[in-house]
Amino acid sequence: MASSHKLKQLILMFLFSLMLVPVHTLGASTAELKYTTASLHSEYSKIDGKQNIWLMFQLDIRKDWHTYWKNPGDSGLAPRLKWVLPENVTAGPIQWQPPSRFPIGPLMNYGYA
Q1: pTM of the model
Q2: Which residues are CB-contacts of 101 (< 8 A; sequence separation ≥ 6)?
Q3: Mean pLDDT, 10 residues at a time, over the chain (113 residues)?
Q4: 66 burial class (0-12, 13-18, 19+ CB within 10 angstroms)?
Q5: SS (H, E, C) 35-100
Q6: 49, 21 in Cβ contact below 8 A?
Q7: Which end of the chain has a smaller Cβ tally under 10 Å, C or N?
Q8: Cβ distance 88 to 18 under 8 Å?
Q9: Contact 53, 20 (CB under 8 A)
C-alpha cells in the first residue's frame, strides 16, 4: 500500500487517444463536485488534426474520501465517463493508473484517494 503522502498525491489518469480532423482549441476544463475536483489536461493548446494526442483526466479528491477504479472490488461502483465530442472526433480506450487497495472489514475495494 502506498504511503499516506503518496495517497494524497495520487492522480487518477484517464489517457485518451484522439484523432481530430478539424483544428480545435483545447481549453482547460474543470468541474467542481462535492468532494472532488475533476479536470482535463492536454500538453497542446491547439492541434491540426493530423496526429493522435493524449489527454489526462485528473481527480483531486478531498482528504478522507476516495473514488473507485474500473473494477471497484467487493463494493462500490466503477466510474463512468461520458464524452460529448465534436463530429469526426473519436476517443480511444481509457488507460487506467494502477489503483490503491481499500480494505473495509472482510471486503477489498480498489480505487483512488
Answers
A1: 0.64
A2: 1, 73, 108, 109, 110
A3: 36 31 50 86 77 84 92 90 81 90 94 91
A4: buried
A5: CEEEEEECCCCEECCCCEEEEEEEEEECCCCCEEEEEEECCCCCCCCCCCCCCCCEECCCCECCCE
A6: yes
A7: N
A8: no
A9: yes
